[in-house]
Amino acid sequence: MSRNLFLMGVAAGAAGSVAGLWASGMLYPRVRRVQRTIQLHRPAVEVFSALARVQNLPKLVRSVASVGCRNDLSLWTAQIEGRHYHWDIEVVQVIPGQMIAWRALTSPKHCGRISLFSRNGSTTLLFELEYLPAPPVLGALAPRGLPEDAIDTALRDFRNAIESAPGWSSIARWDSPAA
Length: 179
Prior knowledge:
Helix content: 25-40%
CATH architecture of the largest domain: 2-Layer Sandwich
Order of helices and strands: HEHEEEEEEHH
Radius of gyration: 21 Å
């Protein structure tokens, strides 16, 4: 009978440990939210056009290696902190000149929205992202998610490319590659 009590105690202790890890986010992480705002000295219509032509983003953002388009999906490859990431994006809402919202269909799981607000020829870009980082107990076995520093760098790259490119309006009119 003492053996059964011992096994029940071990099971209860293990269950308590798992519950504690779960509650702390160590076993199953909580959704992370990132929100950033940047100011661009370009009209919203030009900024929106550059964002909507996702296949051209590798020319504007260093960490984006490639973006391919297939049907209603865009297939992304990025290098972030020396690691390669691949994900498929589905655009879920578009308000021309104002907003693009998406969700990832593959890992790293995330969804987001870019909203544009125009005033006096400049544009405020609001970037919102929610993502689920890999559980810390998995360590290097799984992608860590989308690091916030990489998001900040990508937004700076985008702003610098948009504001410094000679004949910037030609960027906004880049043609899509033949499908």
